């Protein structure tokens, strides 16, 4: 099995699209390379942020292959409406040289069945035994993997090394109390932008998968560094990490809602990245009120951060 890629901070890439609403893979690769150069440990492609339900299987695979060929370390999402297609994405990821898998539960058909999910996870893990994998827990997928199922799978598939927890504060704590504290070889990835501090400091997370980090990579990496130091017991880092997370709170909260891709693409347009202006469905758009609110909050945060980041001490040390 390859070394553990699940540490540090990983942005979940969004898929830019051209005027004809087809994927802009050149822009995708450009963004992936920029984020790695900024200090991200890897990227995730075709989780929820990548709009996997709106792409064809061929488009998803092309995006993965283009990123890998460009030298970008990629963790691949396996979301699909049936197991056969999920397995195909896992096998393709291994074939082209991706670095890991984010194993997404079976959706729609028998999604609440533990036995059906076990079989689904098993087939995916079996298809790419060389790739380290985490299970993606999210209320949007309607199934939460608990400790008994996780360790049942792990006994059979050593490439299952952890999970991404999107379910929020209580679910992160469940993972820490019942899974990662049972086996120190299992890794926990914070999966929602509003829970970075809680995940690292209170739950022993080893990494974070971020949405807002696409638009604010420096600031999110700063938050992760402060949280990692706070998790070592550093008092000032604990204080400063909470200050930064609170200042990011509104922008991070977009990650929890159904319009997360619309919001984060808009913030990237505000950064001058016009290739993120369009969406695959022409009718997908923020309302005027949503857009105005996001812009005001973005400007407020950037003004605050420009002042706060000059304070010195552990802020400067972790920048």
How would you characterize the overall build of this protein?
With 319 residues, this protein is of the alpha/beta class. It has helices at residues 25-38, 57-69, 83-96, 114-127, 147-156, 169-180, 196-203, 217-230, 235-247, 249-253, 260-270, 288-308, 314-318; strands at 8-11, 43-45, 74-77, 100-103, 133-137, 160-165, 187-190, 207-210. It has 13 helices and 8 strands. β2, α2 (57-69) and β3 form a beta-alpha-beta unit. The protein starts with 7 loop residues before the first strand and ends with a helix.
Characterize the biggest β-sheet.
8 strands, parallel
Overall form? globular
Mean pLDDT: 95
Radius of gyration, in Å, reads: 19 Å
Helical fraction: 40-55%
What is the H/E order? Answer: EHEHEHEHEHEHEHEHHHHHH
Which residues form runs of ≥5 with pLDDT under 50? none
Q: What is the count of β-strands?
A: 8
Terminal CA distance reads: 33 Å
Which sequence of strands runs across the widest sheet? Answer: 1-8-7-6-5-4-3-2
Structural class: alpha/beta
Beta-strand level of the residues, as a percent range? 5-15%
Tally of helical segments: 13
């Amino acid at each position: 099995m390859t070394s553990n890629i699940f540490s540090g901070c990983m942005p979940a890439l969004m898929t830019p699209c051209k005027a004809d609403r087809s994927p802009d893979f050149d822009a995708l690769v450009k963004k992936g390379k920029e984020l790695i150069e900024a200090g991200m440990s890897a990227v995730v492609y075709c989780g929820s942020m990548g709009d996997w339900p709106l792409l064809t299987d061929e488009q998803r695979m092309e995006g993965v292959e283009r990123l890998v060929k460009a030298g970008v370390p990629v963790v691949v999402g396996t979301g699909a409406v049936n197991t056969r297609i999920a397995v195909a994405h896992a096998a393709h990821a291994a074939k082209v040289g991706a670095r890991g898998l984010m194993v997404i539960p079976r959706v729609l058909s028998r999604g609440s069945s533990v036995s059906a999910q076990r079989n689904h996870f098993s087939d995916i893990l079996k298809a790419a035994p060389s790739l380290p994998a985490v299970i993606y827990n999210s209320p949007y997928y309607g199934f939460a993997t608990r400790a008994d199922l996780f360790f049942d799978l792990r006994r059979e598939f050593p490439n299952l090394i952890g999970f991404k927890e999107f379910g929020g504060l209580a679910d992160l704590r469940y993972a820490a109390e019942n899974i990662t504290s049972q086996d120190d070889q299992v890794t926990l990835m914070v999966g929602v932008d509003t829970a970075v501090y809680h995940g690292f400091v209170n739950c022993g997370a080893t990494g974070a998968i971020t949405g807002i980090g696409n638009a604010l990579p420096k600031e999110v990496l700063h938050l992760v560094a402060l949280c990692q130091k706070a998790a070592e017991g550093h008092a000032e880092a604990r204080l400063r990490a909470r200050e930064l997370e609170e200042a990011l709170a509104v922008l991070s909260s977009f990650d929890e809602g159904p319009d997360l891709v619309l919001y984060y693409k808009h913030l990237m347009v505000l950064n001058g990245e016009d290739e993120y202006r369009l969406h695959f469905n022409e009718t997908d758009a923020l309302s005027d009120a949503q857009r105005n609110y996001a812009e005001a909050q973005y400007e407020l945060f950037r003004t605050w951060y420009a002042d706060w980041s000059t304070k010195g001490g552990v802020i400067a040390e972790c920048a």
